[in-house]
Predict the 3D structure of the following.
Amino acid sequence: MTIAPELAEPVLEELRQVLGDEHVLTGKAARFNRARVPAPFPVHRWAERVPDLVVLPGSTAEVSEVVRIANAHRIPIVPRDGGTGLTDGAVPLRHGIVVDVKRMNDIKEIDEVNRTCTVGTGINMLKLNEVLGKYGLIYPDDPASYPCSLVGGRIGTSGWSLIGSRYGHSRDLVLSFDFVLPSGKVIHLGDGAGHKLSKSSSGYQLKHLFMGHQGTLGIATEATLKLFPKPEAELSPFFAFPDYDSAYRTVGQLARAGVATFAGAVLFDEWKVDYLRRDDEAYISQPADVRALVCAVAYGYEDEVIAGGRRLMRIAKENGARYLGDEVSEGDWAARHDRYATPLHGRTKAGQVVPMSWHCEDAAINYSNLPQVRIEWHEIVRKLRERFDMFDDWGMFTYTSANTGVDYLAEIDVGIWEQQLDDESWAAWVQAKKDIAAVALHYGGSISACHGSCREGEVDLVPQELGGGYDVMLDVKRAIDPNNIMNPGKYGLDRAYQLDEGVGR
Amino acid sequence: MTDMTHHEADTSPSANGDGSTEEFVEQWRNAAYNCFSSGHKFCREVCPVMQVTRNESWTPTAFHANVVAMEKGELEIADIAEDYVNCTGCGACELRCPNTLFTGDFYRFRTRTVDLVKAVRALAVDNDVHQQGWQRWNLLTDERTHEPVLGDTPVSQEHVRDWSDGLNIPVGGETILFVDCEAAFYRTSVPRAVAQLLQRAGYEFGLMNEQWCCGGPAAEMGYLEQSKRFARHNLDDWRANGVQRVLVLDPHDYITFTEDYPKYFGADYEIEIVLVVELLAEMIRDGRLNPTIPIERTITYHDPCRLNKRKGVWKEPREILSAIPGLVFNDVDRVTQWSYCSGGGGGLPIEKPELTAKISESRVDKAAELGVDTLVSACPWSERPLSEAGDAKQIDVIDIHELLAESLGIEVGGRRGE
């Protein structure tokens, strides 16, 4: 592959002037390694996703200059932070320049009085918390990718946090941020002139608009974050149930109880327990009559966690839960949370162990609709597996999203033997994703609580989910990015430009 | 964890011969795919190179993904060889990998990034893709039988025992002390301390008859044929002189003698390898050494990567330090230290001294936060870059053997570098 003509000298030279030679990468390996994220990836079509160039800016000003140059030359830009997302936000669809912000990982300020910190968006939350811990503080944005995802990616995807029921999710925790628009102009988004407010009612509330756009509107470069006291106590009881229904009933009551230290609950369905039994060496095995599990988590000061914990334990017991004991509870939570263990293999229909990529399709679903969504999702995956042996149903997790029990992140985990993918099986996978998304919408949910919804398949249904809102998305996209340079090809936003050519909505 | 696959998977059949990419890919494809399909990247923020460069091309994830891309015919060895310079071989990524943590127990599998990096470097050399600094380094090592650790000042066979001047150590015997190139020529205070500690404890040992470089660094940089040649020489010399036991003070040697040599020589390899720091801890435990002179320093201990991360040796150095009176010891636990490194390993300082310096600065910064005046290490190769970084922060970098010797009233002598 050669570099696209518009990227030849003198554009390359311009970029080198801004960034220094060592931060403009043209090598093949550098580009191939910024073509993918952990989402299922058509390995046989890798070359189609490879950017022409990678730049590693070190400041907001440098990002701004790079974007300005790209815009002037109409070169696509793909922002890349941790590259750990599951919706391909950081995957280049039109080649161009990948702007990798990992070098921008400074902690610029820790404001102990107002409980905020200001950081470069290339910083990882675990690394940030290593520093904040010395001040007795924590930034509790806690996704599965906590050890490796970056603050900027959390902004770009409007991330979901495992302990968000207590502390809020990325959109609540990020107070404000500096943002480079597709023109190269730098603006500040969030409440207040001083960047440290959690609530104002002045002007349009633009912060949410510029979160979760999957890099289609620009690049966040510096963020001010809300901090909490580092919790002194953690409680993570695991409960076993003989069937899904009683586990489902319990998780609902735990979430609705209004316990202040309640940080989240996780429900493992029968397929998940079967899978863990079958293939997860980290799973602490339980008697065969255990068919479903619930884990509740509470964080806070020791006295309040003990008091809240008593209430949670009582609710579980009243619903027929069997507490699995402290050892299993602490061990399993550590395995699933601290290390986010997931087996990296599945089975063919014949039972052969094969290396598989873990993939999870997520949706936001109201509590009352979870059981039916679950049945329909498993059926979709069953049919897929029937046709193609490289897919395996790894069961479902369901997590609370909020402290009232209103909605849940439902995920179905599918093992994919990517090495075996070809065009036919890939197409079937894309269709299955679309079907999974359609079920979520049918039950009044959202295609995604967590990852975003801009991949092939589900992306077709985004207009349906957003109703008239999707047309506003198109208008916003065209107004902010008139040349469609910012992560083009995502979210079907190319349609915004086809309007000029007389194509109706 | 038992690693059943380790030996058979790491025989590098074609290294420095007819290195074929197909054969290499065949050997590494499943391991590479195990990483590729995970995509977790939990290794990233513990990687010392990543921490200072933030360049995703130089991560364990990329190192594995490249193999998948090679299998797909998208990349060739010439496209990737240079990236693999950026690894100190510390092994942190392997410990942090979910594949090692979990799948390992079940399938006897572990992620072996360090071996993969070595294998790619060897494949590069096989295909005449050289890194200039490494090529020159190994050429000079080959000429002089020792690494050119003194820069323009030549090292040579005649001078390899100079460090022991005046210590009256015999040559030969069943037990010999093997001194790595850095300690033998550059930080001579370390082997002098070790030798005098052993003498103080009444432990009998000699020096090697004709000691060459262990060959480990050549293997790390991809010059496997040379590494094997050096290993062969050393083993032949040991056997010819009736050596049964080799004492090593350098963690890098310890890896070479306990991991590379058994691979080279198979079941015939009969030499017992003893790590001095473990021996000394034992001597303190059973009263053969009794440090009594107080050392008024506030210290922290740097877990050498090859001891802590790769060999699980972290307890004995702490035992030794705890036995020295007068020390204020602000310890940092071994797991936190998975993400620490001096940057001195894996040939990095030869090709990218600026990265080694940054990694060492970052390590010394962490020591400085603890309010210490001294950073104690147990690895001569870490002590040069750490000392350079320590100078800027008024933190003294001292070897654990030097410190113990001082507490026993031993006048060590020699040089702590230049």
In short: The radius of gyration of chain A is 23 Å. The mean pLDDT of chain A is 93. The first strand of chain A starts at residue 24 and ends at 25. The CA atoms of residues 179 and 220 of chain A lie 4 Å apart.
